[in-house]
Amino acid sequence: MKKILTGNVICNDQIANDIYKMQISSSHMGTIRAGQFVNIYLEDKSLLLPRPISICDADENSITIVYKVVGKGTKELSAYKTNEKVRVSTPLGNGYFIDGKKFGGQTDDYKGKTVTVVGGGIGVPPMVLLARKLKEKGAQVTAAIGFQEEPFLVEELGKYCSEVYVATDNGTSGFQGNAVQMIREKNICSDEYFSCGPKVMLRALSDFCAEKDIPCQVSLEERMGCGYGACVGCTCKVKVKTEQGTEIQQRGVCKHGPVFFGEEVAWDE
């Protein structure tokens, strides 16, 4: 059940152009799964809706979020100082399916498996916690991350990944192009792929994995209202197998996701 907690800002540092990394102390978050998000509740009463932000990393006493300043809400968030209070929800949504088939995954044991985490832009942050969890399960983890211009969180991913491949749209750092183009060009092969980022990137990765018959998990980035399924404002269309065949049904990204398998998503609908 969702709770709203009050934590202290440990740090709130700019790590790239318009990109901030905030660590929040909170010892009552409960179990956190890689791929989940939290709602941040701001003090400005004109901002009626909370800001949903992916969990980048976590320990027993804190969570770390990385966000981009894109509007009034995230602009206010970027001004928070060390030791200021911030209201934050407990983890929301379903994370990546990495705990075996009986918990919805397609892989039972990651020991000795090769996996690639694929992030695009502000979809890179949740790859840090995911990479750590997969490494703890014995997987050999590779990261393929793409940015418009300035990379970030490369060093953090390097703690858990045997290789971190970087792509930028303008070619100022690493491969020139996007993350999926880089995967194809450099032949980055794995037993399973995990991703978060723009829809066009997720679809391209899903197509790539379908060609090779490799499992692919995608975390959809949709505008969310409440963050827990009450407002039905962040729906996506998925393929559901029924007795009559395959049907296209709507699912709430915040409640049923944000993580889905690539082959589930009805990309053309």
List the helices and strands and how they pair.
Elements: E1 4-16, E2 19-25, E3 37-41, E4 51-59, E5 62-68, H1 72-78, E6 85-89, E7 114-120, H2 126-136, E8 140-147, H3 154-158, E9 163-168, E10 175-176, H4 179-186, E11 192-196, H5 199-212, E12 216-219, E13 235-242, E14 245-252, H6 253-256, E15 259-261
Parallel strand pairs: 7-8, 7-11, 8-9, 9-10, 11-12
Antiparallel strand pairs: 1-2, 1-6, 2-5, 3-4, 3-6, 4-5, 12-15, 13-14
Task: Give a short synopsis of this structure.
The chain is of the alpha/beta class. The protein is built from six helices and 15 strands.
Nearest-integer average pLDDT: 90
Number of distinct helices: 6
Measured as a percent range, the helix fraction is 10-25%
Number of domains: 3
Task: List SSEs in N-to-C order.
Answer: EEEEEHEEHEHEEHEHEEEHE
Instruction: Indicate the proportion of strand residues.
Output: 35-45%
* CATH topology tier name of the largest domain: Rossmann fold
Structural class computed from helices and strand pairing = alpha/beta
What's the total number of strands? 15
CATH class of the largest domain: Alpha Beta
- CATH-derived architecture of the largest domain: 3-Layer(aba) Sandwich
State the low-pLDDT regions, or none. none
> Superfamily at the CATH H level of the largest domain?
Nucleotide-binding domain of ferredoxin-NADP reductase (FNR) module
Rg from Cα: 18 Å
What strand order characterises the main sheet? Answer: 10-9-8-7-11-12-15
Overall body shape? globular
What can be said about the biggest beta sheet? Answer: 7 strands, mixed
